[in-house]
Every structure is written in structure tokens, then in C-alpha cells.
Amino acid sequence: MDMYLQMYDDLRRPKGDNPTIGIILCSETDGDVVRYSTLARNDKMFAAKYLTYMPTEEELRREIEQQKELYRLQQENK
Length: 78
Description:
The chain is α+β, with helices and mostly antiparallel strands and 78 residues long. The chain has one domain (2-41, 48-76). It has helices spanning 2-11, 57-76; strands at 21-26, 33-38. A two-stranded antiparallel ribbon has the order 1-2. Strand 1 and strand 2 form a beta hairpin.
């Protein structure tokens, strides 16, 4: 996965974006497995939420909108 992350960062990642994070989710085995990879040290990377099911498209849309609103409010208070 590191090779793909490096290629994406070199060829596709817009200037100013944070380093790319690769995530592999697997639930076809006896247990759920998550693997991740980063090419850059990132002390601010953490998992804020963990769900054991895939949310619906509407739930994802609602969460994205909530996060955008929180970000907007934080920017206003700077």
C-alpha cells in the first residue's frame, strides 16, 4: 500500500492537502480487520469514531454536513 500512497501523493494530491492515509477494511474473515498506512509522521492523526456497520448514504451526508459546520464555526472563532 505504501507504493500506492507514494504514487498518489507524487502524482495526484493537490498542493496544500494533508498527507494521504491508506486504509484497508476487511470483514470477510472471522473477525473485522483494519490496517492503515501513512508515509508521513502525523501526530494529529487519530480515530474519532468507530462503527461496526456501514452507515447509510444519508447518515454519511448528515455527518459530513455536521463536520463542515463545526469546521466553519472553529474558523470564525479564530
